[in-house]
From TrEMBL:
<dbReference type="GO" id="GO:0048593">
    <property type="term" value="P:camera-type eye morphogenesis"/>
</dbReference>
<dbReference type="InterPro" id="IPR015943">
    <property type="entry name" value="WD40/YVTN_repeat-like_dom_sf"/>
</dbReference>
<feature type="domain" description="IFT122 second beta-propeller">
    <location>
        <begin position="297"/>
        <end position="551"/>
    </location>
</feature>
<dbReference type="InterPro" id="IPR056838">
    <property type="entry name" value="Zn_ribbon_IFT122"/>
</dbReference>
<keyword id="KW-0217">Developmental protein</keyword>
<dbReference type="InterPro" id="IPR057411">
    <property type="entry name" value="TPR_IFT122"/>
</dbReference>
<dbReference type="GO" id="GO:0007399">
    <property type="term" value="P:nervous system development"/>
</dbReference>
<feature type="domain" description="IFT122 first beta-propeller">
    <location>
        <begin position="189"/>
        <end position="292"/>
    </location>
</feature>
<dbReference type="GO" id="GO:0035721">
    <property type="term" value="P:intraciliary retrograde transport"/>
</dbReference>
<dbReference type="Pfam" id="PF23381">
    <property type="entry name" value="Beta-prop_IFT122_1st"/>
</dbReference>
<dbReference type="Pfam" id="PF23377">
    <property type="entry name" value="Beta-prop_IFT122_2nd"/>
</dbReference>
<dbReference type="GO" id="GO:0008589">
    <property type="term" value="P:regulation of smoothened signaling pathway"/>
</dbReference>
<keyword id="KW-0853">WD repeat</keyword>
<dbReference type="GO" id="GO:0097730">
    <property type="term" value="C:non-motile cilium"/>
</dbReference>
<dbReference type="GO" id="GO:0030991">
    <property type="term" value="C:intraciliary transport particle A"/>
</dbReference>
<keyword id="KW-0969">Cilium</keyword>
<dbReference type="GO" id="GO:0045184">
    <property type="term" value="P:establishment of protein localization"/>
</dbReference>
Length: 1181
């Protein structure tokens, strides 16, 4: 049987050495007991290794080449070092069939007929595992994680590194198809691990690590004995009973035969990282082959087609770098490409493809024709409608249907053929022969045209774009260029292996050789640069180069030939070369050279390329001047030199052309003043002065101000010198300039004075203004610097400046809180309204800044000033007086509310805050002044009402708050208070109810009428500290009684009986006796004339004031009467105290009423009246 035949085979396994040591080949032969080691360089035996007692069946090298192992029929495995020394031996229960090293470690798998073992240097013993069938072959995955075992029963078992089975592959027909060789693809670029399996069912199969088969089985015509991959996994070697080794693609497509032998091939391996193949045969023969994979490719302009993986064709666009792959299932033998055609020759057919569209960037090909026929040819060429086959001396022209239309027989072997274009169906071919003959053939013409004949064989040739020149590379590596029409040899260059004309420039070609690229333009010398490979095309600045197996487009700047043309002043030709592709620096050089050569058209194009607008503007201006008849080339060239920075050359040309002023302007603009002075020498003084001025401007701009000042002074530019000195704060320089200037020069002197003021030197400014005689500016200076004494003295001498002095003085006083002095100053200037306006502004600022106490004081001051002015404008100013008085009292009260809501601690009693908030609400019945918050007022009232037992009022305040926008900081407190107040009784404490001292009526806590009695309408008089209702009643004088008479009558103090009654009253009833205490401190007798005047008509809604006559006045006591002695035009106000023993104090300045004790305490705290801030040491007047 086959299995037995295989077991007894003479040569079972072989593997060559690793790449980093002397190549050796290990071979075991069954009838020898030795491991034979050979040198692969010459096949000599290095050393036979003894150690086995029976036939050696298998050997395997470790990946790093430091160890190898051998297995034998004596059931033993021996591990050897690279120095050919045995270091370890272990045994199995049966003969060893195969051994394999893990590719990443020194772990060794050894397989026998019944089991397999895993050994590594880290283990003390070999771990062995039973197998279900005889193991014939084994292979590790490239990551060393899994081991595949091929069985005699046709099963494949995949194990992990520990020997556990992970996957079991059971194949159809396995019993009659023993697995004889398996191998994992070693490539790390593949997405999945691929296992190649060769069995004696004559099949080649592929599987994934998961056990899934890849594709279908590839049927063979022989029994395979060995399968192995190249190092990178791109090809498979397969040998067996067909007595040869075949080369397959990694997908299982057969490519060809490597070597035919006289007996079965039992083993074949590829040398790592090379194309060397070794094979061992049944008869003991060892063969060593080198495979050469030739480049199969084609090129047309910027499209390059080449073979990949032996069966595919890749078309690459060399400009866009796009690639398209055309997959095939057969070996690609020849490729040809032309315009939109692509021809691919395979062993039994030729396929012709065409592009889908005429788009130059289209990369999609489709099959146009298929010629199913076997052709033998050396070269293949495709045209629009024909296929050209070249076989030695013969050229055949075939249509796309495979019909031979034409044939040419040459005198010698054809060495080179190329399509040089032409109409479809009539293309021309350029043919080079070994005898040196060069012909042109048209595919529709049977006659070949001989272009020329040279003595040496043709290797490569190309024709220029205009078909006028022919470049040939011969067998002596010489590049020869001929004129096609005259057959004249134009020039020749050595060291060439390929040549190509530039398709965009008639006179440029390039050739490669000796590791250099050579570019030749016209008859200029060759320019060289390093380049590896062969030049196969030259398009513009791109050179197409084939190096080994890859084609690349190399961008080559055309600088060298461009400069060659520039040296000969051939600007247009140089521009044509530059258009093929040069650097920006080369474009600039071309532009400059053309500009200096006055070749403006070429210069303009070159400057446009590099977008240099400055030079384009220059050229445009020169062309415009030429249109207007100017034709001085020297002047044009001078402008060019100036732009290029060649200033001295430009100046010489300007002078030569009679334009010295242009040279002077150029030097001045460049700040080259020394050169300008040299250029002027003994010129016009005006020009010299202008030059100095320009130099001064330059010194100023480069931050040399002192030098600039001196230059400006010497040039007579005093204003500029003053400005620089003033901006730099040089007072001494300004003094010197001001004193040197004549008084008639008013503008420079005024500028000096301005800078003296700015630099805080008013004395020098005054001196300057006096020199000029500008009294108004002098007054303004004294006012601005607050030198009031000098200003007053000047205004006395010149009364017309009175307003300019006293008005600013008054404003300054007002701003410094010296209001009384400011008022006098305003009055002195006759500006009463300005005095009021200043205070109004200060008051507004105080309100905006929440300084309500200051606002109250300012409003009081305003009211008093309005009262002073009321002598002239009575109605308007009296309205303002009352309005400001009310605002002063409102802001004075709100000051306490604001402190309570904003500050963490309260400085007032709850009763005081309660009274204040009530007073404020009653005062805000019409409109709310700026800055006063009803929310704060209601919040204070609600809190204090709740604390003092006024629950009804507190509930009302909380309800009012619900309808207002409450700040977030009060929100929680208001919501909580609104809820908790519902738990309180709905009434107010009687102790808090205010009493009217005129009619003895108890008033509600919240009065819709405001701060007046609801019964008698008598206005309440409040204490300006606690805001309790004072026991005062205002009375008015009867008509005809003057204030002076009333005071004299009161001062008389006529005697009046005032008896004190018994405070206790006894009351008797049938069953009780009680005493009642009358709490009135003083009982005013009914015969008091004033008491009688307090009566009024009940039920009336009109207020009836208390009016007294002389008798009533005479009956009053001086200590019971308080008088507000207002200045005219106001009348005095009179108040009668109904509780004389309760002392009340009135401020003599603002006429605010206080409880005497409260007033004395406040004066001690503030040393002044809390309302009008009148100091206690001031006079009462």
């Amino acid at each position: 049987p086959r299995a037995e035949l295989a077991r007894r085979a003479a040569c079972k396994r072989c593997r060559d050495g690793c790449a980093d040591r002397t190549p050796v080949l290990i071979l075991n032969i069954s009838f020898w007991l030795f491991v034979q080691v050979y040198d692969t360089s010459d096949g000599t035996l290095i050393q036979p290794l003894k150690g086995h007692k029976d036939t050696v069946y298998c050997v395997a090298y470790a990946k790093d080449g430091k160890r190898f192992a051998s297995g034998s029929a004596d059931k033993s495995v021996i591990i050897w070092t690279s120095k050919l020394e045995g270091i370890l031996k272990y045994t199995h229960n049966d003969s060893i069939q195969c051994v394999s090293y893990n590719p990443l470690t020194h772990q060794l798998a050894s397989c026998s007929s019944s089991d397999f073992g895993l050994w590594s240097p880290e283990q003390k013993s070999v771990s062995k595992h039973k197998a279900g069938s005889k193991i014939t072959c084994c292979s590790w995955t490239n990551d060393g994680q899994y081991l595949a075992l091929g069985m005699f029963n046709g099963v494949i078992s995949i194990r992990n590194k520990n020997g556990d089975e992970k996957v079991k592959i059971e194949r159809t027909g396995a019993a009659s198809s023993p697995i004889w060789s398996i191998c994992w693809n070693p490539s790390r670029d593949e997405r999945n691990d691929t296992l190649a399996v060769a069995d004696w069912g004559q099949r080649l199969s592929f599987y994934q690590l998961s056990g899934k088969q890849i594709g279908k089985d590839r049927m063979l015509t022989f029994d395979p004995c060995c399968v192995s991959y190249f190092t990178k996994g791109e090809y498979i070697l397969l040998g067996g009973s067909d007595k040869q080794v075949s080369l397959f693609t990694k997908d299982g497509v057969r490519l060809g035969t490597i070597g035919e032998q006289s007996s079965w091939v039992w083993t074949c391996k590829a040398k790592p990282d090379s194309n060397y193949v070794v094979m061992g045969c049944q008869d003991g023969t060892i063969s060593f082959y080198q495979l050469i994979f030739s480049t199969v490719h084609g090129l047309y302009k910027d499209r390059y087609a080449y073979r990949d993986n032996m069966t595919d064709v890749i078309v690459q666009h060399l400009i866009t770098e796009q690639k398209v792959r055309i997959k095939g299932r057969e070996l690609v033998k020849k490729i040809a490409i032309y315009k939109n055609r692509l021809a691919i020759q395979m062993p039994e057919k030729i396929l012709i493809y065409e592009l889908y569209s005429d788009d130059s960037s289209d990369m999609y090909y489709r099959v146009k024709e298929k010629i199913v026929k076997k052709f033998e040819c050396n070269l293949l060429v495709v045209c629009s409608d024909h296929i050209i086959l070249c076989q030695e001396k013969r050229l055949q022209c075939l249509s796309f249907s495979g019909v031979k239309e034409r044939e040419w027989l040459m005198e010698s072997l054809i060495r080179y053929i190329k399509v040089i274009g032409g109409p479809p169906g009539r293309e021309g071919l350029l043919v080079g022969l070994k005898n040196g003959q060069i012909l042109k053939i048209f595919v529709d013409n049977v006659f070949a045209i001989v272009l020329l004949k040279q003595s040496t064989a043709v290797r490569c040739l190309d024709m220029s774009a205009s078909r006028n020149k022919l470049a040939v590379v011969d067998e002596n590596d010489t590049c020869l260029v001929y004129d096609i029409h005259t057959k004249e040899l134009l020039f020749q260059e050595p060291n060439a292996n390929s040549v190509a004309w530039n398709t965009q420039c008639e006179d440029m070609l390039c050739f490669s050789g000796g590791g250099y690229l050579n570019i030749k333009a016209g008859n200029f010398p060759v320019h060289q640069q390093k380049l590896q490979g062969f030049v196969v095309g030259y398009n513009g600045s791109k050179i197409f180069c084939l190096h080994v197996f890859s084609m690349s487009a190399v961008e080559v700047p055309q600088s060298a030939p461009m400069y060659q043309y520039l040296e000969r002043k051939m600007f247009k030709e140089a521009y044509q070369i530059a258009c093929l592709g040069v650097t920006d620096a080369d474009w600039r050089e071309l532009a400059m050279e053309a500009l200096e050569g006055l070749e403006f058209e070429t210069a303009k194009k070159a400057f446009t390329r590099i977008r240099d607008l400055r030079y384009l503007e220059l050229i445009s201006s020169i062309e415009e001047r030429k249109k207007h008849g100017e034709n001085l080339n020297e002047l044009f060239l001078a402008d060019v030199y100036a732009y290029q920075g060649k200033f001295h050359e430009a100046a010489k040309l300007y002078k030569k052309s009679g334009h010295e002023s242009l040279a002077l302007d150029m030097y001045s603009d460049l700040r080259m003043f020394d050169y300008a002075k040299d250029f002027l020498r003994s010129g016009d003084p005006k020009d010299t002065k202008m030059l100095i001025k320009k130099q001064a401007d330059w010194a100023k701009n480069i931050n040399e101000p002192k030098a600039a000042v001196e230059m400006y002074l010497s040039a007579g530019e005093h204003m500029k010198a003053i400005e620089i000195s003033g901006d730099h704060g040089w007072v001494d320089m300004l003094i010197e300039i001001a004193r040197k200037l004549d008084k008639a020069e008013r503008e420079p002197l005024s500028k000096c004075a301005f800078y003296f003021k700015k630099l805080n030197n008013p004395g020098y400014a005054a001196e300057t203004y006096m020199k000029v005689g500008d009294l108004k500016a002098l007054v303004s200076l004294h006012v601005e610097t607050h030198r009031w004494e000098e200003a007053f003295a000047l205004s006395e001498k010149h009364p017309e400046f009175k307003d300019e002095v006293y008005v600013p003085y008054a404003q300054w006083l007002a701003e410094n809180d010296r209001f009384e002095e400011a008022q006098k100053a305003f009055h002195k200037a006759g500006r009463q309204r300005e005095a009021v306006r200043v205070l109004e502004q200060l008051t507004h600022n105080a309100v905006v800044e929440s300084r309500f106490n200051d606002a109250a004081y300012y409003y009081w001051m305003l009211s008093m000033q309005c009262l002073d002015i009321a002598q002239e404008q009575k109605t308007e100013m009296l309205q303002k007086f009352h309005h400001f008085q009310q605002l002063a009292e409102v802001y004075h009260v709100y000051h306490y509310i604001q402190r309570y809501t904003e500050e963490p601690f309260s400085f007032h009693l709850p009763e005081t805050l309660f009274n204040i908030s009530r007073f404020l609400l009653h005062s805000l019945t019409k409109e709310t002044p700026l800055g006063i918050s009803k929310v704060n007022t209601l919040f204070t009232l609600a809190k204090q009402s709740k604390a003092l037992g006024a629950y009804k009022l507190a509930r009302h305040a909380y309800d009012k708050l619900q309808g207002l926008q409450i700040p977030a900081r009060f929100q929680k407190s208001v919501e909580l208070g609104s809820l908790t107040i519902r738990s309180k009784p709905f009434h107010d404490s009687e102790e808090l109810v205010p009493l009217c001292y005129r009619c003895s009526t108890n008033n509600p806590l919240l009065n819709n009428l405001g701060n007046v009695c609801i019964n008698c309408r008598q206005p309440f008089v409040f204490s300006a500290s606690s805001y309790e209702v004072l026991h005062l009643v205002e009375f008015y004088l009867e008509d005809g009684i003057t204030d002076e008479e009333a005071v004299s009558l009161i001062d008389l103090e006529a005697p009046r009986l005032n008896r004190s009654g018994n405070k206790w009253q006894e009351m008797m009833s049938d069953d009780a006796q009680s005493l009642r205490l009358n709490d009135s401190a003083v009982i005013i007798e009914d015969d008091d004339p004033f008491t009688a005047k307090l009566s009024f008509e009940q039920g009336s809604s009109e207020f009836v004031p208390v009016v007294v006559n002389r008798a009533v006045l005479q009956s009053m006591s001086r200590r019971d009467v308080l008088i507000k002695r207002w200045p005219k035009p106001l009348r005095w106000q009179y108040y009668r105290s109904l509780l004389p023993d309760a002392s009340i104090t009135m401020c003599p300045s603002c006429f605010q009423m206080f409880h005497t004790e409260d007033y004395e305490l406040l004066v001690l705290q503030h040393n002044c009246c809390p309302f009008c801030r009148r100091r206690i040491d001031e006079s009462n007047q």
